[in-house]
Amino acid sequence: MTKKIHTITLGRRGFLQGAVATGLAAGTMPLGQAIWAAEGAMLNAFSYADIDKLDPGFYQNGYNVDVMNCIYHKLARYVPGREWEIENEAAEELEQVDDTHIRFRLKPGIMFSGGYGEMTAEDVKFSFERVLEHDSPVKGDWGPLKEVQLDPDDKYAGTIVLEKPFQPLWTITIPYGVGHIVSKKAVMEATGDGGDFGMKPPAFSGPYILDEWKPNQYVKLTRNPDYSGELKPGYDEIRIIPMDDEKVAERAYEAGDLDYTGISLSSLSNYKANPPADTTIKEFPSLYYVWVGMNIDNEVTGNEDLRKAIQWAINVPQIMDAAYFGEAKPSTGLIAPGLTGHREKALIPPEGDLDKAREYLEKAGGPPAQPITIDTLNATTWKTIAEVIQAQLGQIGIQVQVNVQDSGSFWTLGMESEGDRWKNMQLVVNRFSMMPDPFYATTWFTSDQVGIWNWERFSNPEFDKLNDEALSEADKDKRAAMYRKMQDLMEESGAYRFLTHEASPVMYRDSVEPALRPDARPLYVGFKPA
Amino acid sequence: MAETTASYKEPSALRVYAGQLRRNPMGMLGLVLVLIVVATAIFAPWLAPYDPNQIMLGPRMGAPSAEHWLGTDQLGRDLLSRVIAGGRIAMLVAVATLGAALSVGLALGLIAGYGPRWLDNILLLIFDAVRSFPVIVFGLAVVALVGPSLYTVILVVAITSIPIYARIVRTQTQALRGAEFILAERAMGASTLRILGVHVLPNVLGPLLILASMDVPMVIATEAGLSFLGMGVRPPAPSWGTILNDGYNFIRNSPWPVIAGSAPIIIVTLGFTFLGEALRDIFDPKLRRNS
Questions:
Q1: Does B252 contact A270 at a Cβ distance shorter than 8 Å?
Q2: pLDDT at residue A519 above 80?
Q3: Which positions ≥6 away from A278 have C-beta within 8 Å?
Q4: What keywords are annotated for this sequence in UniProt (chain A) (predicted)?
Q5: Which of B242, B249, B258 to substitute to test the interface with A, most A CBs within 10 Å?
Q6: In contact, B166 and B127? CB cutoff 8 Å
């Protein structure tokens, strides 16, 4: 069975037609636009967090992927816009032969920098299989990958073979983190065994290269001199500046230090009423999920009745009002509306119920003798959430101490590899990014992830089984029901109080034409001067 | 004639100093400001019209009104109450920090100034090493290790202030150790402890206290700075730095939290600086501006 994917399959003829059209367009475009294409300019953009890994096989988070999109190639990439679509990038042809076989053929002529030659199917095989061979923490993104078979007659062609069907393949795996292709020769030279090369990419293939990285200051990308692909870089230089707090980014934008930034929801109405000069503001739905987590393995919050008392005492609409100025809606779980597995209702109503909370607290033996702690990132919105929860839990007699952490400290809080701090963690306000497949939400809460990203240390065999089975479930309704059940299990454990998916307003200079995913995530590689 | 001379009474030193202070308008202004701040800190629970941490989602980011004299912050908390409670935190930090720094700095300065040369060299090396750290950067490093809290702020500022006082005491002690009255005491067999406690200490204490009073704004600004960066007191404790940071983040919504957070820092800085300069002029006439 041959199943064409819902993407643009660009053949050689199509490519030639496109190239001719592009040449004509370049020849006839106004002088100003021709100049930017040749010379470009500089873009200063905001990012919520600094990068910490540029090896796609071992990527840590979306902020790393934002940079990877610019410096490597994938078989296919997300199309900027309001709909979740993908299009071929490195692949000239990409098709699903059957449920477990995906055939690809690379565009000839994609070069790696540093003299590492042309990208071939051998590089694709190496890039994908090393994720499993080296037991990457994100190997789940490749799910049941068995191998990549090479076409003996065509050095550009091969077939991805799966053990079983894998639903997130087209939405997450291929167009996102682990889908990036690295140079086998360069990585082997750099690492010896093909393992994690961390922050030092041995070769680039994208329109930009990593020119400089100053931790917690900026990531500087410049044009790749060896690049000859179809995606012309819009800028000579892109600086991505990490700022934990959107409010700080807003000030930086107003001061002229940024050309593109996210806006906090509490500032949105103000900016809409009184936007900065020469600025466009756009609103996008968000896939983020924000929740309050409770450490099941902590001596105090290990008490399930106490956790449930906390769940019921938290009034989510009040938090929406205080932290987001009413611009965000309460969520029902991890999975945002419109995605497979979204729940219409949570088990606990958004408003909670103080009487029920008191009942659970009584069953738990009353409030803890010592104040419990709630850890939060040092950002205005999150601090506000923590302070409101502190006040809400105070209503049932639970004293709370707010621990504000800087990003470096916060993002390692529940990780066993970073010491014993996870043992003392009790409550935490957390937010994860999400991709357009429910797998990407639930996969962080399996037993395998305890002490890695599963900071609540929630471990449920039924959840793990459902998470595994849902990956290959082709029936959409059945799959949705599985994810709904998984969120029920999480909530029933008492370890989670789901808060919101937020929303993603952004603003940018009128001189910038951004390329954004449907959830407003920037695809810097597609940014260009307007 | 002899009777007339006997009836003349020398005015007490305190009276003389008070008189000099009264004749210094900036000093008096400083004293008034300091007294207001100190009194507000002491009587904060009775003066604050609302619970400073009480969240009221109705009147958020409100301008000053009859109910809320300084307006409200992003959680509807009364800014006046938070400023008053913040003053208590600021004064607590100032007193605890300077108390600790003065005590330890004094003891180490006396030891360095009066002790053997090798000990002096070691202590100087330590003082200079500690002083080489910028206070805020050192504070951020300590906070990253032990977590933010009021005690961390006190610890950081105290540690970085100790060398300042210790160096001054050391210099003065070294100047005094060769003085005739000290040599005489030593010749008469007085113990080192007695010489330091009875003869050296009173001579170094006055200038040290003046310096400490002038350092109060620095300490308060450091605490506010760390709190502004989210590394000071824990939320929802209303440090002036926290109020300022909240205001900064919501400045497009309302300017009042920024004004409420910065005004007391300005007042305290001016008050202690004016008062400290006046005291310095009084106790150290050589430095009088008009002399």
A1: yes
A2: yes
A3: A509, A510, A511
A4: Signal, Transport
A5: B249
A6: yes
- Read off the amino acid at residue A124: V
Contact B144/A at CB under 8 A:
yes
In a domain, residue B157? The reply is yes
Q: What is the helix (H) or strand (E) element at residue A513, kind and residue range?
A: strand A512-513
Q: Using the beta-carbon criterion (under 8 Å), do B75 and A388 form an inter-chain contact? A: yes
Q: Which of A16-20, A472-476, B114-118, B189-193 has the lowest mean pLDDT?
A: A16-20
Q: Which CATH class is domain A6-26+54-212?
A: alpha beta
Is the CB of A459 inside 8 Å of chain B's CB atoms?
A: no
- Say whether domain A289-500 belongs to CATH 3.10.105.10: yes
pTM score of the predicted model? 0.78
Instruction: Specify the pLDDT at position A422.
Output: 95
Angle (CA) A153-A154-A156 rounded to 5° is 160
Domain of B268, CATH number, reads 1.10.3720.10
Structurally, chain B folds into a number of domains equal to 1
Domain range holding B114? Answer: 15-283
Question: How many residues does the structure list for chain A?
Answer: 530
Q: Which chain A residues touch B253 with a CB distance below 8 Å?
A: 266-267, 270
Determine, yes or no, domain membership for B290.
no
CB contact under 8 A, B57 and A406: no
pLDDT digit string, tens, across residues B232-267: 888 888 999 999 988 888 888 889 999 999 999 999
- Could you tell me where in chain A the CATH 3.90.76.10 domains are found? 6-26+54-212
**Cβ-proximal residues to A452 (8 Å cutoff; 6+ apart), any chain:** A137, A415, A416, A417
Render pLDDT for A274-309 as a digit per residue (tens, 0 to 9).
999 999 999 999 999 999 999 999 999 999 999 999
Compare CB distances from A402 to B229, B234, B250 and report the shortest one's residue. Answer: B234
Task: Please report the number of interchain residue pairs, chain A to chain B, with beta-carbon separation below 8 angstroms.
Answer: 63
